[in-house]
Amino acid sequence: MKRYDSQLEIGGTKLRSRLFLGTGRFPNPAVLQQSLEASGAEVITFAVRRVNLDSVEDDSVLQHVEDRSLVYLPNTSGAGNADEAVRIAKLARAAGLGNWIKVEISRDERTLLPDPLETLRATERLVREGFVALPYTSDDPMLCRRLEEAGAAAVMPGGAPIGTGLGILNPYNLGLIAEQSGVPVIVDAGLGSAQDVVQAMELGADGILVNTPVAKAQDPVAMAKAMRLAVEAGRLSAMAGRIPRKPYASASSSTEGALFGGPYAAGSAIEGRRAETSAEGLRR
Amino acid sequence: MKEELLVVGGGIVGLSCAYEAAKRGGRKVTIVDRGDFGGQASGAAAGMLAPYTENSEQPDPFFRLCLDSLRLYPEWAEEIERLSGISVELTHTGSIQVALHEADMLPLRTRQRWQNEWGARAEWLDAADLRRLEPGLSSAAAGGLYCPEESHVYAPKLVKALEAACRRLGVRCAGNAGDTVDLMLDGGRVRLVTGTGGRFEADRVIVCAGAWTGAFERWFGFAVPVNPIRGQICAYHSPIGEVRRMVFTSQAYWVGKRNGTLVCGASEDIAGFDTSVTERGIARLTRWSGRVFPALADRSPVHRWAGLRPATLDGWPLLGPVPGAPQAVVAAGHYRNGILLAPVTAKRICDVLDGKLPAAELAPFAPDRFAASARTLG
Ligand SMILES: Cc1cc2nc3c(=O)[nH]c(=O)nc-3n(C[C@H](O)[C@H](O)[C@H](O)COP(=O)(O)OP(=O)(O)OC[C@H]3O[C@@H](n4cnc5c(N)ncnc54)[C@H](O)[C@@H]3O)c2cc1C
């Protein structure tokens, strides 16, 4: 049984926060910095193609986070196949961005959905090359299992296409992935607001990666804090064990043995018991 | 009696609002700046009118505002030139967003797809096309997106021309008026008091204080989170035509001006209200310049300067009346696009003053939209 205060560990690194933040699309660096602070995120992700690889310290985004102790998760977004993704990953490592890589491969400019075959191929190769590979993948349980077998350090199924804010379109699949996975499951892409984050964590995710829903929120700093709280709330809620769903009401305060039973006390207690019974019946 | 209108802040936004209000007539317009006219960020800007390049994601209300403004520009600029006798050097070069990696291409194609539905007429350039259109580009450039509609102006001249046009139209221009120490909005009137003892009274006020607009929150009564983001920028000597179009990359842009300079910008620094130029900030630009345009590798910029962009939490400007004090209107927070947005801002704000535009139309830009979350965060 997982304990709610246990630490997330990926590729041998223990992480303080289960919230990963993407640095793209922020309206300006001040808002990025304040959002990063409010999110408590320790892992940040960014597109390698946007980074000034000649001198990372000169980079227009990374220069604003350089004095924080963060784990960099560069991503291969824009890659259309495994070859490109591997090339991008090597460029990032050579530029001193570390050996974590989020594999992100798409060839559909409209949905940006990950290409499953190329993602699997790239993951296999990157693992062989010594990378800590975190593939962004569709929410397919079998594919996630194959990625794990290929050596992925974590799997990152999407809730919905990147940037759509549609939330978790297939909670059933995501639940299966979380249940079966031997490596951490980080739900990535498509989330819209804190409720999606809570849902993902309740479904058993080990962490969340968000970018657009924070960066494009009206107040990104407030949303970053909301996301941090949602990760915590969702995880606690999952650990705490929720009540079973029932079709009818059951009184939240039992009137039996109440100090001051009202005139209708007896009647409502009976109603309450009836509701319990029929719910039991439905469950069987 | 004519309505009295006070405009606070003499940058591009304030000048454009004063100009538009005076042109429409029926008001006595006064514009005040605590310093000289021409603004702070406004005089520093590269003058690019680039609604497509600046909005790569989706056709949201901000993109549409930017696009409306681009379409207003030719007529607006011509009128200002006519009134002022000053050329603002509106130049229709088009722009190229360069893909330095193969991985840059997919997002550019996404952008091209939706923007062409909005009239961008953007064309994909392969490496050979690029070399033909912009021979000075490094051979590392893999392709790019050409956006023919994007243009630029010479911002320092545009603010001069606007000031001259305002004066021509009888706007009272009160420069070096000192910083605001009080703004009274009770009783439906407006009274502004400055640190040097200046007193201004009017029926309505438009606050266009750029990066300093946050200072007005104590008089508005709600949070106005505007951050100054410093942009360092420089210019090379460059024969006209060396770089023919505006060229954008993830780290910097270049735009050739008619005075024989090539402007290269710009950093986005968090440095409070400090407007100084740093060695590191400029070196970043020059190193990158040499990489993208090899001919610049052994040249040094001849000018360097910096401006403070007014940045809001969502990157969109604050446009519209102050709730609870409708005689006060805000036009600020234009961040990277104040030059582009000047005409549309002035027209929308004057439409609000004239009662022609319901404030709800400007809801995405409501000046108090951050009030609730700011209160919650404390
Ligand atoms: C390096 C750089 C490059 C840029 N390039 C572009 C570009 O290519 N295209 C584009 O569209 N935009 C560009 N911008 C952005 C653009 O410059 C700004 O969005 C725009 O200038 C903002 O105009 P403003 O009038 O609000 O602010 P400012 O020009 O800063 O003017 C504000 C004025 O208000 C005055 N003021 C402040 N407080 C008070 C007070 N209490 N009382 C009286 N006066 C007051 C100040 O003295 C100042 O004159 C660039 C900005 C920078 C820094």
UniProtKB/TrEMBL annotation, chain A:
Keywords: Cytoplasm, Schiff base, Thiamine biosynthesis, Transferase. Coiled coil: none annotated. Its main location: cytoplasm. It is found in: Cytoplasm. InterPro entries: Aldolase_TIM, Thiazole_synthase_ThiG, ThiG. It is an enzyme of class 2 (transferase). The keyword Kinase does not apply. It catalyses: [ThiS sulfur-carrier protein]-C-terminal-Gly-aminoethanethioate + 2-iminoacetate + 1-deoxy-D-xylulose 5-phosphate = [ThiS sulfur-carrier protein]-C-terminal Gly-Gly + 2-[(2R,5Z)-2-carboxy-4-methylthiazol-5(2H)-ylidene]ethyl phosphate + 2 H2O + H(+). It comes from the Bacteria. Catalyzes the rearrangement of 1-deoxy-D-xylulose 5-phosphate (DXP) to produce the thiazole phosphate moiety of thiamine. Sulfur is provided by the thiocarboxylate moiety of the carrier protein ThiS. In vitro, sulfur can be provided by H(2)S. Belongs to the ThiG family. Homotetramer. Forms heterodimers with either ThiH or ThiS. This is Thiazole synthase. It comes from Paenibacillus cisolokensis. The lineage of its organism: Bacteria, Bacillati, Bacillota, Bacilli, Bacillales.
UniProtKB/TrEMBL annotation, chain B:
It is an enzyme of class 1 (oxidoreductase). Residues 5-351 form the FAD dependent oxidoreductase domain. The lineage of its organism: Bacteria, Bacillati, Bacillota, Bacilli, Bacillales. This is glycine oxidase. InterPro entries: FAD-dep_OxRdtase, FAD/NAD-bd_sf, Gly_oxidase_ThiO. PANTHER family: GLYCINE OXIDASE, SARCOSINE DEHYDROGENASE-RELATED. It comes from Paenibacillus cisolokensis. Keywords: Oxidoreductase, Thiamine biosynthesis. Pathway: Cofactor biosynthesis; thiamine diphosphate biosynthesis.
